[in-house]
Structures are given as structure tokens and as C-alpha cells.
Amino acid sequence: MNLSMRRLPVALAMLLTACGGSPGAPSGGWSDLPARTVVTTSTVFADLVRNVGGDRVTVASLVPAGAVVETYQAKPDDLRALAAADLIVMNGLGLDDWLESTISAASPDTPVIRLAEGLPGVQLLPGEEPGSQNPHLWMDVAYARGYVARIGEALAAVDPAGAAAYAAGVTAYDARLAELDAWARAQIEAIPPANRKVVMFHGAFPYFARAYGLTIVGVAVQAPGQDPSAGEIAALVDAIRASGAKAIFSENQFRTSLVDQIGRETGASVVAELYNDSLGTAPVTSYEALIRWDVEQIVAALR
Fold it and tell me: Is residue 29 pLDDT above 90, yes or no?
């Protein structure tokens, strides 16, 4: 299947031309893409795909490292990437739903997998909006293993000749993730039970907390980009004092002014270098490294 040669909607073709590109010859780093090209919404998902697909795939993330997936806005280069893709990988459950309209414009016939939706064996947790589900399933490594299995099936569907290679990739990667899951559990179990209380910047860690035995006392913001009211901050300060939570954790892509303020008022330490939906600079350059980094930061702050 050569999707880069697919006839594109007139409006998209005009947009690409206006931006200096063309449907048949992507530019800005997306040119000369091979047949098995996978586009993801997150650098984390891109890493999962690379570990399964190996050298049979070329993978690119629309959202760059360090950016916030929930609030990302698609750019013309993203349209070119999607138009050339053989497979599109997103999370779903509201995390990256901004991609839906972009896919409709750029690549309506390309297979899409929504890793978090309908994943077998998952017990979903509530999201930040009423009636929604929390989308950050991959922060529980057991659920990330489900993502990996789903990725292997999707790659085999678009590249049947590579089915055996993808199956082998899933098996090898799944074994490493099983070891990672056990390691994370053992590390956090070493924290005294009374200290396993945390405050998070926003709702990215409920699956992580449930899997590894932490209690989330509260969050600083309900969702990225939403500032809390004075009443919400006061309620969180009271909850921290009542629970005895020792640390407030934030992700590295967010400003620290709010959590610093809450830390000063409560005496809780602030750790502002966690990761969840984006990889970063060394050593956090893979999903496995992301989980190890977060566990180590949490253990160091709570022990």
C-alpha cells in the first residue's frame, strides 16, 4: 500500500502547496518515507512501535518530546506525515482526540489504532471531565504490555510479510516490560506504607498509583491549561496537611510556580521532573527509561 500516492482532498492539497510542499513529495523531514511508515501522537507510543517493529518500520511522533499531548495543535507538516503513513497510532479516550479531524482531512483511509480503547483486561478510572475515563493507561506497565500486543497485531495487518518478525518483537519486548513492572513494584514496596501518599500536578498518574500502591491525595490542576481557583488551592493545601503527604510531583514540561507555592505553604518537597506522555533528554529517551526515572524520583522523595 503506497499511501503517499493517494489522491488527497483539494483543500489539503492547496494547504500543502501553500506551505511549500506537495502531496507526492513531503518536505520538512518527512520525505523519502518507506512503505511501512508509522505516525504516532506521542514519543512514548513511537518508542513502543520501534521496539516491536525494529528495522521494518520508520516511526515519527507528531507531538515532539517535551510538548503536551492534550493541548497540541496539528501543523501543516503533520498533514504531510499523515498523508504518507501506512499506520496511525494514537491513544484515544480523549488524550489526543484533536487528531481525529486531522486524519479525516489528510488520511481518511489509513488504518488507525486507538491503544487505550477496548483494551482487554483494563479497569478504567474516571477522567478529569464528568463522564470521561482517564486515558493514561500506559503508566501502568501491565497495560503498556497490552499496548504492545495491539501494536504487533496492527503492524502485521499492514505488513503481513513481517508478521513473524513483529511477533518476535512483541515477545522480546514484553519480557523486558514484565521485568520492568516487577522492578517498579518492588522499589515502591520498599517505601514505608505511611509515606506512600503523593500530590500530582494533574491526573496523569492514577493508573501508576493504583498499580504500584501509592495514594494520590490531590492534584494541583484539573487538566493542563486550567488554572485552579483560590478555593481549590486552599482545599489542596488542607488535604496535604491532613494527610501528611511529603512530596508534590510535577512533569518537566509544566511551569513550577503553582507547585512551588503549594510546597511553601505545606512544607512538602517539590519534585518537578517526572515524565508521562513525552520522552525527554538522556536518560529519559525510552518508555522503559521513563518508568525507571519516575520510580526512582518518587522513591527518593518518599523514603
Answer: no
Q: Taking each helix axis from N to C terminus, what angle separates 10-18 and 76-83, rounded to the nearest 10 degrees? A: 130
Q: Where in the chain is the domain with CATH 3.40.50.1980?
A: 3-181, 189-302
Q: Which residue has the higher pLDDT, 71 or 286?
A: 286
Give the C-alpha separation, 191 to 299, whole Å.
7
Domain 189-302 in CATH 3.40.50.1980: yes
Angstrom CA distances, 249 to 37, 202, 203, stand at 36, 9, 11
* Cα 195 from Cα 266, distance rounded (Å): 16
Distances (CA, A) of 94 to 52, 90, 209, 237, 292: 25, 10, 20, 29, 26
- Angle between helix axes 43-53 and 287-302 (nearest 10 degrees) is 130
- Cα distance between the two ends of the chain: 53
- Average pLDDT, integer, range 42-70: 96
Q: Please name the residue that has the C-alpha cell 510546597.
A: 263
Higher pLDDT, 181 or 130: 181
Q: What is the mean pLDDT of residues 10-37?
A: 41
Instruction: Write down the CATH number for the domain with range 3-181.
Output: 3.40.50.1980
Measured N-to-C along each axis, helices 99-106 and 76-83 cross at an angle, to the nearest 10 degrees, of: 60
Whole-number pLDDT of residue 280: 94
Q: Does the pLDDT value for residue 35 go beyond 70?
A: no
Contact 126, 134 (CB under 8 A): yes
Q: What average pLDDT score do residues 12-34 get?
A: 36
Alpha-carbon gap, residue 38 to 60, rounded angstroms: 7
pLDDT over 60 at 105, yes or no: yes
For residues 126 and 93, the answer to whether their CB atoms sit within 8 Å is: no
